[in-house]
Write a structure and sequence with these properties.
The protein is α/β, with parallel strands linked by helices and 250 residues long. Strand 1 and strand 2 form a beta hairpin. Helix 3 packs parallel to helix 4, helix 3 packs antiparallel against helix 9 and helix 4 packs across helix 5. The protein has a single domain, classed as Alpha-Beta Complex (2-enoyl-CoA Hydratase, Chain A, domain 1). It has 10 helices and 8 strands. The protein has a 6-stranded mixed sheet with strand order 1-2-3-4-6-8, with helices on both faces. Strands 5-7 form a two-stranded parallel sheet.
Length: 250
């Protein structure tokens, strides 16, 4: 069964999400994930947040195609894509650093989650792809988070080459990943070491730094809601419905 769970130890909160379909994110999971991140951010006993997914395969396959194909009106579509906006904005707003542990491939919304984190450490097999255009939509909601990390040129390339995987090394060179590790043991070692250091750092200093890092994104509540409406409209188009059905039948 899908889940979001949180464990707290020595001022470190580890939030883990899971979905049996390659850690894809249906609306219920997105809402729960955003809520859990915000709650951790309000807890004074927590100094740093580690965000991870379960298993040793995909980090996150993005939107749930099963849910996408059942969207029948724009309001429902907007609400679904608002789930990704809620997660990104939750990471942006919490006064704690969020470390993302990316142990496998990230697609679409999964790339957005990895980009929104303040510090992302990945395995060398953690390739990325923004696949939205291939199914007739576009990386509208996650776009601001991705572009903020890798720049307009790389974001444009990633968005247009919607069927092409880019390597973890590419993602690191562009700034999406801060570190790339050669083994899962090294990945966990680096994530844990950074989390432990931050857990002993001055919370007020980290909060101030986070505000500086995210300057210029104060309009994202409105911006990402507008982007969610764009995706919610496009998901109803004949092109997109056919593309999603074609993808699901493979």
């Amino acid at each position: 069964m899908e889940y979001v769970q949180i464990q707290t130890n020595n001022k470190i909160a580890t939030i883990e999400f899971f979905h049996p379909q390659s850690n894809s994110l249906p609306g219920s999971l997105l809402n729960k994930l955003a809520e859990t991140i915000l709650q951790a951010g309000q807890n004074n006993d927590i100094h740093v947040i580690v965000l991870k997914s379960a298993g040793n395969k995909a980090f996150c396959a993005g939107a749930s195609f099963d849910e996408l194909i059942n969207i029948k009106d724009e309001n429902i579509g907007r609400e679904f894509f608002s789930g990704f906006a809620k997660v990104i904005n939750a990471i942006r707003k919490v006064p704690k650093f969020v470390i993302a542990r990316v142990q496998g491939k990230a697609v679409g919304g999964g790339v957005g989650v990895a980009a929104a984190a303040d510090f992302t450490i990945a395995l060398n097999t953690a390739s990325i792809k923004l696949s939205e255009l291939a199914v007739g939509i576009g990386p509208f909601v996650v776009g601001p988070a991705v572009e903020r990390k890798i720049g307009t040129s790389a974001f444009t390339s990633l968005s247009i080459n919607a069927t092409e995987w880019q390597s973890a090394e590419w993602a690191c060179a562009k700034g999406l990943y801060a570190q790339v590790c050669s083994s899962e043991e090294e990945l966990d070692k680096n994530v844990n070491a950074l989390a432990e250091r931050l857990s002993k750092s001055n919370p007020e200093a980290m909060m101030m730094l986070k505000k500086i890092f995210w300057e210029g994104t104060e309009n994202w509540d409105t911006l990402l809601a507008e982007r969610a409406a764009m995706s919610g409209k496009l998901v109803l188009s004949e092109f997109t419905v056919k593309a999603i059905n074609s993808f699901k039948s493979k």
